Amino acid sequence: MELTKKIIRKLLTAVKTTKPEEIGCDDCFEELQIFVELELSGNSMQDAKPLVQDHLERCKDCKEEYQVLLAALNSLYNSP
Amino acid sequence: MFNWFKRRRNEDTSYETNEDWVKALSAPVDEKAVGLLRKKLIRGLKPALYKYVDRELDQFVEDVAQDALIKILDNIHSFRGESKLTTWAMKIAVREGLTELRLKKYDDISIEDLKPDDDSREVFSLSVASSEPSPERSVHESQLMEKMMKIMNEELTEKQKKAIDALMIEGLPISVVAKQMDTNRNALYKLVHDARLKLKNRFELEGINPEHMLNDL
């Protein structure tokens, strides 16, 4: 791993925002259906599920799954 | 004709509550419910996944729905009723589909190839691109980079460096890296979280403020 300025910036930002109480991908997945229904009903997910929101901001794969799930449910529930 | 219409209506409205779904999807499984859930999964997945699939979307989505249904039926007892059953089922199908796509996309990439091409036994030993000051890099900046390199080499295990390299530097999907490192997503996330915490604690011990370092870079 060769450290460049860009990489160091990325690492420093990740370290700076690290919290002791983060949840992992499993806990996020366990709660994702609740989180996504809150979004679909227009409620604030940040207030209701701050740890899930926090994980989604850090984990690219979980965020992608959340976005695709949202799109799939919008098609399923909202299209005629 | 009227009877057919009536029968169709019943088919579409007979699983309105979570209780109806859970009963129908638990043994002995109601095949009509399975068929209806399959249709719903496909209806949601197709428009949501078309951007990710370059060909044979219909076949791909049908295969994903089928694989997801097996998992849904196997895990129906774990559904806690905190959402609509169809939301929970779609969550399982989406993860199934995206994991399949990620593994296929990065099939020919090995994280072992990310290591420097040298004879070093320390596969992921850290080095700076160049520690010498240059027109683009001030003396202060070079010192910061050296410092960061030293802390990472002292604090992180080889496994943590490897994971950070693959995930944060190369940007590979966590499911792909987990498979190659013979672990799972959750354990890998925890490994990197522990690494970030170690670095944060060491910074605090040494009185280093990452915010200041960022401003200085």
Topology of this structure?
The complex is a heterodimer of chains A (80) and B (217).
Chain A: E1 2-3, H1 5-16, H2 25-40, H3 45-48, H4 50-58, H5 60-78
Helix pairs in contact in A: 2-4, 2-5, 4-5
Chain B: H1 2-13, H2 18-25, H3 31-49, H4 57-74, H5 85-105, E1 127-128, H6 139-155, H7 158-169, H8 174-180, H9 185-205, H10 210-216
Could you characterize the architecture of this molecule?
The complex is a heterodimer of chains A (80) and B (217). By secondary structure, chain A is mostly helical. Chain A is built from five helices and one strand. Chain A has a domain at 31-80. Chain A has helices at residues 5-16, 25-40, 45-48, 50-58, 60-78; one strand spanning 2-3. In chain A, α2 (25-40) crosses α4 (50-58), α2 runs parallel beside α5 and α4 (50-58) crosses α5 (60-78). Chain A is elongated, with a radius of gyration of 16 Å. Chain B is elongated, with a radius of gyration of 25 Å. In chain B, α3 packs across α4 (57-74) and α8 (174-180) crosses α9 (185-205). At the A-B interface, β1, α1, α2 and α5 of A face α3, α5, β1, α6 and α7 of B. β1 of chain A pairs parallel with β1 of chain B.
